[in-house]
Amino acid sequence: MLVLSRKPGEEFRIGDIVIKVIATATGRAKLGITAPADQQILRGEVWEENQKREQSAMSHECLNEQQIEEARRLDEQCRGRLAEEAAEKELRDQELELLRRRMAGRIERGEVLNEDER
């Protein structure tokens, strides 16, 4: 940590930021800060509060990411089940079509169908 002693009216610089001692009193210093518009200047307690909020937001984002991942996993499971069901339906449809053809052939040949086959 760099420790500086400055009298009222004196200043120091950190890059493009100018910090000027405006006044001093017992245990206090009044500072003026000149900085580019894109530089955010915050008191320590405000900066710490912002950090806490960001951490909280990031933990919520992690939960949301976990929820999204769970939703993706469930979606994949559902898609897999739908694909299995579609394949089973296709197989049943093929079996029914084969049965229809067999029955049509028997009818064409004049074979007698029993009650269960009609």
Task: Name the descriptors.
single chain, 118 residues, alpha+beta, 17% strand, rod-shaped
Description:
The protein has 118 residues and is of the alpha+beta class. It has one domain. 55% of the residues lie in helices and 17% in strands. It contains one helix and three strands; from the N terminus they run E-E-E-H. It has one helix at 44-108, and strands spanning 11-14, 17-25, 28-34. Strands 1-2-3 form a three-stranded antiparallel sheet, with no helix packed on it. A hairpin with a 2-residue loop joins strand 1 and strand 2 (17-25). It is rod-shaped, with a radius of gyration of 40 Å.
Per DSSP E runs of 2 or more residues, the count of β-strands stands at 3
Average pLDDT, rounded to a whole number, is: 86
Q: Which residues form runs of ≥5 with pLDDT under 50?
A: none
- Number of helices in the DSSP assignment: 1
Structural class: alpha+beta
| Order of SSEs | EEEH
Percent of residues in helices comes to 55-70%
Overall number of domains: 1
Q: Radius of gyration in whole Å, from Cα?
A: 40 Å
| Distance from first to last alpha carbon | 96 Å
Strand content: 15-25%
Biggest β-sheet strands, sense, barrel: 3 strands, antiparallel
Principal-axis shape equals rod-shaped
Q: Strand order across the biggest sheet?
A: 1-2-3
